[in-house]
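Worked Example 4.2. Consider the chain below.
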Amino acid sequence: MRKFIRVAALGAVIAATTLATPQAFARSAPDGERLVAGTGVHLTARGAQNPDTRAVAAADPAAVGAATTLCGSGYKLDNAERLPDSRRFGTLFTYTKDVRGAYGVCSVFENNTSGAKHMKLKLCAGLREGGCKTDEGTYSQYAGPVKIESGNPMYMNCPPVTAIMWSGSTAIIDRVRSATPCD
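Applying the procedure from the previous section yields the following C-alpha coordinates:
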Protein backbone atom coordinates (compact mmCIF):
# COMPACT_ATOMS: atom_id res chain seq x y z
CA MET A 1 0.00 0.00 0.00
CA ARG A 2 2.87 2.40 0.81
CA LYS A 3 4.42 1.76 -2.59
CA PHE A 4 1.10 2.57 -4.27
CA ILE A 5 0.79 5.83 -2.31
CA ARG A 6 4.35 6.88 -3.25
CA VAL A 7 3.73 6.16 -6.93
CA ALA A 8 0.39 7.99 -6.84
CA ALA A 9 1.97 10.99 -5.06
CA LEU A 10 4.81 11.12 -7.60
CA GLY A 11 2.28 10.97 -10.44
CA ALA A 12 0.28 13.81 -8.88
CA VAL A 13 3.42 15.98 -8.53
CA ILE A 14 4.41 15.36 -12.16
CA ALA A 15 0.89 16.12 -13.39
CA ALA A 16 0.64 19.30 -11.31
CA THR A 17 4.04 20.53 -12.49
CA THR A 18 3.20 19.83 -16.12
CA LEU A 19 -0.17 21.59 -15.94
CA ALA A 20 1.08 24.60 -14.00
CA THR A 21 4.19 25.34 -16.08
CA PRO A 22 3.63 27.60 -19.13
CA GLN A 23 5.58 26.28 -22.06
CA ALA A 24 6.15 27.52 -25.60
CA PHE A 25 6.91 23.98 -26.62
CA ALA A 26 5.40 21.17 -24.65
CA ARG A 27 7.76 18.32 -24.12
CA SER A 28 11.01 16.70 -25.02
CA ALA A 29 11.00 13.82 -27.42
CA PRO A 30 12.94 10.69 -26.46
CA ASP A 31 15.95 11.94 -28.46
CA GLY A 32 16.07 15.19 -26.43
CA GLU A 33 14.56 17.38 -29.14
CA ARG A 34 11.63 19.65 -28.47
CA LEU A 35 8.12 19.18 -29.80
CA VAL A 36 5.69 22.00 -30.57
CA ALA A 37 2.79 21.88 -28.10
CA GLY A 38 -0.30 20.16 -29.47
CA THR A 39 1.56 18.67 -32.45
CA GLY A 40 4.07 15.97 -33.29
CA VAL A 41 6.31 18.60 -34.90
CA HIS A 42 9.95 18.61 -33.87
CA LEU A 43 11.94 21.82 -33.48
CA THR A 44 15.58 21.90 -34.54
CA ALA A 45 18.04 23.03 -31.85
CA ARG A 46 18.13 26.45 -33.54
CA GLY A 47 14.33 26.60 -33.64
CA ALA A 48 14.07 25.68 -29.95
CA GLN A 49 16.50 28.48 -29.05
CA ASN A 50 14.74 31.15 -31.14
CA PRO A 51 12.13 33.02 -29.04
CA ASP A 52 10.31 34.30 -32.14
CA THR A 53 9.99 30.79 -33.61
CA ARG A 54 8.76 29.45 -30.27
CA ALA A 55 6.23 32.31 -29.96
CA VAL A 56 4.81 31.74 -33.46
CA ALA A 57 4.64 27.98 -32.81
CA ALA A 58 2.90 28.48 -29.47
CA ALA A 59 0.41 30.97 -30.94
CA ASP A 60 -0.55 28.82 -33.93
CA PRO A 61 0.38 25.14 -33.56
CA ALA A 62 -2.22 24.17 -36.19
CA ALA A 63 -0.40 26.24 -38.85
CA VAL A 64 2.95 24.73 -37.80
CA GLY A 65 1.49 21.23 -38.10
CA ALA A 66 -0.12 21.94 -41.48
CA ALA A 67 3.10 23.38 -42.93
CA THR A 68 5.07 20.40 -41.64
CA THR A 69 2.64 18.04 -43.34
CA LEU A 70 3.14 19.91 -46.62
CA CYS A 71 6.93 19.52 -46.34
CA GLY A 72 6.75 15.81 -45.60
CA SER A 73 8.44 13.22 -43.45
CA GLY A 74 11.60 13.99 -41.52
CA TYR A 75 11.31 17.79 -41.55
CA LYS A 76 11.76 19.80 -38.33
CA LEU A 77 10.76 23.41 -37.72
CA ASP A 78 13.87 25.58 -37.92
CA ASN A 79 12.37 29.07 -38.19
CA ALA A 80 8.98 30.78 -38.13
CA GLU A 81 8.93 34.48 -38.90
CA ARG A 82 6.05 36.97 -38.83
CA LEU A 83 6.15 39.16 -41.92
CA PRO A 84 6.62 42.01 -42.47
CA ASP A 85 6.63 42.55 -38.69
CA SER A 86 4.20 42.14 -35.79
CA ARG A 87 1.33 43.11 -38.15
CA ARG A 88 1.77 39.58 -39.55
CA PHE A 89 0.35 39.73 -43.07
CA GLY A 90 2.17 36.45 -43.59
CA THR A 91 4.31 33.87 -41.83
CA LEU A 92 7.40 32.27 -43.35
CA PHE A 93 8.01 28.74 -42.06
CA THR A 94 11.34 27.06 -42.75
CA TYR A 95 11.96 23.38 -42.05
CA THR A 96 15.11 21.30 -42.37
CA LYS A 97 15.76 17.59 -42.69
CA ASP A 98 18.90 15.59 -41.92
CA VAL A 99 17.98 11.91 -41.95
CA ARG A 100 20.62 9.28 -42.73
CA GLY A 101 22.38 11.18 -45.48
CA ALA A 102 19.22 12.79 -46.89
CA TYR A 103 19.29 16.55 -46.45
CA GLY A 104 16.53 19.02 -47.17
CA VAL A 105 15.19 22.53 -46.71
CA CYS A 106 11.50 23.30 -47.13
CA SER A 107 9.67 26.63 -46.92
CA VAL A 108 5.98 27.49 -46.70
CA PHE A 109 4.69 31.09 -46.84
CA GLU A 110 1.36 31.43 -45.05
CA ASN A 111 -1.15 34.15 -45.99
CA ASN A 112 -2.49 35.68 -42.76
CA THR A 113 -4.66 38.34 -44.45
CA SER A 114 -8.41 38.06 -44.86
CA GLY A 115 -8.28 37.56 -48.63
CA ALA A 116 -6.30 36.04 -51.49
CA LYS A 117 -3.04 37.80 -52.35
CA HIS A 118 -0.48 37.46 -55.12
CA MET A 119 2.44 35.67 -53.44
CA LYS A 120 5.86 34.41 -54.47
CA LEU A 121 8.04 31.96 -52.56
CA LYS A 122 11.48 31.11 -53.93
CA LEU A 123 14.10 28.82 -52.38
CA CYS A 124 17.55 28.33 -53.89
CA ALA A 125 20.17 25.71 -53.10
CA GLY A 126 23.31 26.74 -51.23
CA LEU A 127 25.34 25.75 -54.29
CA ARG A 128 24.70 27.53 -57.60
CA GLU A 129 24.33 24.33 -59.57
CA GLY A 130 21.52 23.26 -57.24
CA GLY A 131 19.07 25.70 -58.82
CA CYS A 132 15.94 27.30 -57.37
CA LYS A 133 12.35 26.24 -56.76
CA THR A 134 9.56 28.82 -57.00
CA ASP A 135 5.84 28.87 -56.27
CA GLU A 136 4.02 32.00 -57.42
CA GLY A 137 0.34 32.77 -57.79
CA THR A 138 -2.72 34.15 -56.02
CA TYR A 139 -3.33 32.28 -52.78
CA SER A 140 -5.76 32.61 -49.90
CA GLN A 141 -3.89 30.19 -47.61
CA TYR A 142 -0.22 29.67 -48.51
CA ALA A 143 2.47 29.56 -51.18
CA GLY A 144 4.64 26.48 -51.30
CA PRO A 145 5.92 24.20 -50.22
CA VAL A 146 9.18 24.69 -52.06
CA LYS A 147 11.89 22.15 -51.27
CA ILE A 148 15.53 21.55 -52.02
CA GLU A 149 16.66 18.00 -51.21
CA SER A 150 20.01 16.32 -51.80
CA GLY A 151 22.47 13.77 -50.52
CA ASN A 152 25.03 16.61 -50.46
CA PRO A 153 24.76 18.72 -47.28
CA MET A 154 26.42 21.70 -49.04
CA TYR A 155 23.16 22.29 -50.94
CA MET A 156 21.60 23.10 -47.57
CA ASN A 157 24.31 25.54 -46.46
CA CYS A 158 22.94 29.10 -46.45
CA PRO A 159 20.22 28.73 -49.09
CA PRO A 160 18.39 32.01 -49.75
CA VAL A 161 14.59 32.08 -49.43
CA THR A 162 12.49 34.93 -50.83
CA ALA A 163 8.91 35.68 -49.70
CA ILE A 164 6.94 38.40 -51.48
CA MET A 165 3.26 39.32 -51.05
CA TRP A 166 1.51 42.02 -53.05
CA SER A 167 -1.61 44.03 -52.33
CA GLY A 168 -2.50 45.29 -55.80
CA SER A 169 0.79 46.45 -57.30
CA THR A 170 2.43 47.23 -53.94
CA ALA A 171 4.65 44.68 -52.18
CA ILE A 172 3.48 44.54 -48.56
CA ILE A 173 6.04 41.83 -47.80
CA ASP A 174 9.43 41.58 -49.50
CA ARG A 175 11.76 39.41 -47.43
CA VAL A 176 14.97 37.67 -48.43
CA ARG A 177 16.85 35.69 -45.78
CA SER A 178 18.97 32.61 -45.39
CA ALA A 179 16.80 29.55 -44.81
CA THR A 180 19.52 27.89 -42.72
CA PRO A 181 22.65 29.03 -40.88
CA CYS A 182 25.62 30.10 -43.00
CA ASP A 183 28.85 28.29 -42.12
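Confidence is low (pLDDT under 50) at residues 1-31. The CA atoms of residues 164 and 174 lie 5 Å apart. Compare this with Example 4.1 before moving on.
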